[in-house]
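Milestone 3.1: sequence recovery, worked example.
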């Protein structure tokens, strides 16, 4: 299973995202490829061969500032170092906007009840760390993500016809190992 499975791919960057990205001279527009997906906060585009570019959605109710996004990633890296996806946060010259550049996951799948067993130990460790994060810093990692929330809601409405999923933490197969990636 890969990044393209189950996702509708649109070619090219939409006009609003193109305007947003134009604030970042360090981003090479020619490297921006197909829209691969998106979540509550970002639209995701292929960026070169091995990366993705995440452009913040403007319709999000509480958009993060670059400083907030950097603080979020620092917290994730500090508490979940083995599971954190390598990320670069690029800030605009006026320091009001940001973009994310991340390693492109090639062989991953969302966590479902059917595949949870293969990463159960790792997942329980993430839950333990997350519980400590809640008690010590009063913040919580969002395990479900937009796609996960939608699938969980649909599984409740339609019964077991649609499997609930966790989409902000995924199972990645890389270099012969299986691991969880945030």
């Amino acid at each position: 299973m890969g990044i393209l499975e189950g996702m509708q791919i649109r070619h090219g960057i939409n006009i609003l995202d193109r305007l947003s990205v134009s604030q970042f001279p360090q981003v090479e527009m020619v490297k921006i490829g197909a829209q691969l997906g998106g979540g509550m906060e970002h639209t995701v585009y292929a960026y070169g061969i091995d990366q993705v570019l995440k452009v913040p959605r403007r319709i999000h109710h509480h958009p993060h500032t670059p400083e907030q996004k950097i603080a979020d990633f620092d917290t994730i890296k500090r508490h979940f170092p083995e599971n954190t996806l390598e990320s670069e946060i690029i800030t605009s010259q006026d320091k009001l906007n940001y973009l994310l550049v991340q390693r492109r996951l090639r062989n991953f799948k969302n966590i479902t009840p059917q595949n949870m067993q293969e990463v159960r130990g790792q997942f329980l460790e993430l839950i333990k760390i997350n519980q400590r994060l809640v008690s010590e810093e009063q913040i919580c990692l969002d395990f479900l993500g937009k796609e996960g929330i939608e699938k969980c809601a649909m599984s409740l409405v339609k019964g077991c016809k649609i499997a609930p999923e966790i989409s902000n933490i995924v199972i990645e197969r890389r270099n012969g190992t299986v691991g969880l990636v945030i």
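Residues 1-8 have pLDDT under 50 and may be disordered. Helices lie at 15-21, 66-79, 120-137, 145-158.
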